[in-house]
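User: Hello, can you help with two protein structures?

Assistant: Certainly.
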Amino acid sequence: MIGIFFSIQIILAIILIILALLNKSSSMGFGTYASSNDSVFGAKGPMDFLTKATLTVGFLLVLNTLTLVYLYNKQANTSVLDEVKIHKTTTPKNIPTVPSIPTK
């Protein structure tokens, strides 16, 4: 179960990196000087598909991380000794006894 969520975590992280690199840089760097402001809704404009996809994948990554934390914590609270069955051993009846020292 944890292996499945861990695999999903790696895939989501790779997708998030790719989406973040594909987004247009409009707040810092040379993107503010080189891009034109042709948006009807202002300088930033409405959220486009890549921005919504990035936010969705980021939200899924956080949920998957919290799920993994819960599962690892649940696994850490168990011990191998919880599964060990303790059997009481009794002494057999035919064991010879050591003679006692006679007392006066």
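That covers the first. Now for the second protein you mentioned:
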Amino acid sequence: MIMITGGSFQNKTAYAMKATGLTESDIIDGAECTAKDALEAKGIRNYHTLVKRIFMSGEDPLAFTEKLCNASAEAIIMDETGCGIVPIDKNDRLIREAVGRCGCIIAQNCHTVVRVCCGIPTIIKGAEK
């Protein structure tokens, strides 16, 4: 499994398709999919949004992420959300922390971690195929 992270709108999904051979239809959107769909997907983009949705539903996003790491996903794509101004709202801070912790779980369980900035990949862990 490969984890691709970086800021918003940095061509992370395009890089994921190039690096893995997945197509646009292989990659589901965490902003819209169900948790069940995520566990069956080859690729997930906007995983940070799925974490937020799971958190808001009262479920444990960390436990879900552990389950996801044992599923069939080849690529997980998520925005970096820990930079910048700390949110005033307590719930927003808790979501931000959950996203960061989920990212750590994914990074520990995958073979490659890539940060994409301006469309340029930097390999943090592992090697490009």
